[in-house]
Amino acid sequence: MKVFTKTDIGMTRTMNQDSYSVSNEESYKLYILADGMGGYKGGEIASKVAVTAVEKYIKEKFLIITKDKETILNMINDAIEFANTAIFDESRHDIELHDMGTTIEVCMIYKNKLYIGHVGDSRIYRIRKNIIRKLTTDHSYVEKLVKDGEITREQAFNHPKKNLLIKALGTNGKVEPEILYKALAKDDILVICSDGLTNMLREDKILEIIKENEDKAVDRLITEANEAGGLDNITVILIINK
User: Fold this and answer.
1) Region at 132 (left for phi over 0; alpha for psi -120 to 50; beta for the rest)
2) pLDDT confidence of residue 39
3) In 27-44, which positions are buried (b, 16+ CB within 10 angstroms) versus exposed (e)?
4) What CATH superfamily classification does 2-240 receive?
5) Distance between CA 70 and CA 84 in Å, rounded?
6) Is the pLDDT of residue 103 over 90?
7) What percent of the chain has pLDDT over 70?
8) How far apart are CA 121 and CA 139, in angstroms?
């Protein structure tokens, strides 16, 4: 398995509010990405708290739980809820952090299975046999418009409210993550990314860059996102299951 990671401030922001973590434990691999929001420094703090809290929770709980599918999925759900509480509590104690929140992507690989937790509009893609498929569903206003048939997917890409979230981590006392379970096949490629990438590059372009560059794909994705405008921080975790 090959893993490539990179984060970049982009072309217009003064601070990188994305955070990520890669953990290669003895029995599992864990990838976490968070894209923070909420005023000066608030987003940076929220994303770091989220990544740290989820990683800590899973490392401690995985040692003592049974390793069946439902228990692992429940652990990931609980880890995200734990992080949500940590962010929400911190925001209530500091008025400057009152509006902070973050997206969260949690991807655990255990015995060739994917255990995924998701809140917000960062994304996890799977590329299999040269087909790219988005595994997560954006928790956004525009995604709801698409689902309700009010706009097309093409219109969504350029919609003025495309960054408006309807669910984020830490903005409320409770959160309901999307939890997924998928098989991992040989030669599958996983792309975990913040919307700084997907707001600049369409899915077919992301697939093309990865196919043509592989080991240098993360660098190329970020370069092209910046060349397209780089309107936000950009973070990519690329996992190739060789």
Assistant:
1) beta
2) 74
3) ebebbbbbbbbbeeebbb
4) PPM-type phosphatase domain (3.60.40.10)
5) 21
6) yes
7) 100
8) 6
Please give the Cα distance from 26 to 211 (Å, whole number): 30
**Taking a C-beta distance cutoff of 8 angstroms, is the pair 105, 33 a contact?**
yes
From CA 142, how far away is CA 2, in angstroms rounded?
A: 34
Determine how many CB atoms are found less than 10 A away from the CB of residue 181. 13
* Distances in whole angstroms, Cα of residue 157 to Cα of each of 1, 12, 150: 32, 19, 14
Domain assignments of the chain as residue spans, ordered by start: 2-240
Which of the two residues, 175 and 97, has the higher pLDDT score? 175
Residue 41 clears pLDDT 90, i.e. is over it: no
Per-residue tokens: 141:
């206003």
Q: Is 27:58 a contact under the CB 8 Å cutoff?
A: no
- Taking the C-alpha atoms of residue 37 and residue 45, their distance in angstroms, rounded to an integer, is 9
pTM here? 0.96
Q: How far apart are CA 179 and CA 163, in angstroms?
A: 22
Q: What is the pLDDT of residues 63-95, one digit of tens each?
A: 999 999 999 999 999 999 999 999 999 998 888
